[in-house]
């Protein structure tokens, strides 16, 4: 059996949601769905992009807001009350700066040459190339 190579992921959420996850050592995506989280494995790298400060807000941020590594292979559910039972993954978050995406648009394989660069972000979680992950993480001073 061959060992799975490390993968890199871009998760999308408002900055206030990312901040809570960083403080408590977890991530969740796609309004708490489990299927996207099951694609990630222990040791994978993850970066959060936040289009806004608050969910659904008009307070544009368009920045990378967190970077870390998936801690284990457990996907688990929590009760946040009022019938909301989202799934989460544990993440070891790195101490990084929040950085705007715009200066990197022409350097990232994901966005280079695309006028509608944010369109794929609507899926909530997408795989990043190693090049893009390292470029963003370096800009965030994660290395």
Automatic annotation (TrEMBL):
<feature type="domain" description="EVE">
    <location>
        <begin position="7"/>
        <end position="138"/>
    </location>
</feature>
<dbReference type="InterPro" id="IPR002740">
    <property type="entry name" value="EVE_domain"/>
</dbReference>
<dbReference type="InterPro" id="IPR015947">
    <property type="entry name" value="PUA-like_sf"/>
</dbReference>
<protein>
    <recommendedName>
        <fullName>UPF0310 protein DFR47_101777</fullName>
    </recommendedName>
</protein>
<dbReference type="InterPro" id="IPR022996">
    <property type="entry name" value="UPF0310"/>
</dbReference>
<comment type="similarity">
    <text>Belongs to the UPF0310 family.</text>
</comment>
<dbReference type="Pfam" id="PF01878">
    <property type="entry name" value="EVE"/>
</dbReference>
């Amino acid at each position: 059996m061959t060992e799975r190579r490390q993968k890199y992921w871009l998760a999308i959420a408002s900055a206030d949601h990312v901040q809570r996850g960083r403080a408590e050592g977890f991530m969740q995506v796609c309004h708490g769905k489990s299927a996207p989280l099951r694609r990630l494995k222990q040791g994978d790298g993850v970066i959060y992009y936040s289009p806004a400060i608050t969910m659904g807000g008009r307070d544009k941020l368009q920045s990378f807001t967190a970077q870390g590594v998936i801690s284990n292979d457990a996907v688990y559910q929590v009760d946040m009350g009022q019938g909301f039972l989202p799934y989460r993954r544990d993440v070891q978050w790195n101490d990084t700066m929040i950085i705007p995406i715009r200066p990197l648009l022409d350097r990232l394989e994901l966005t280079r040459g695309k006028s509608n660069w944010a369109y794929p972000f609507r899926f909530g979680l997408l795989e990043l190339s190693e090049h893009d992950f390292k470029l963003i993480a370096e800009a965030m001073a994660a290395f």
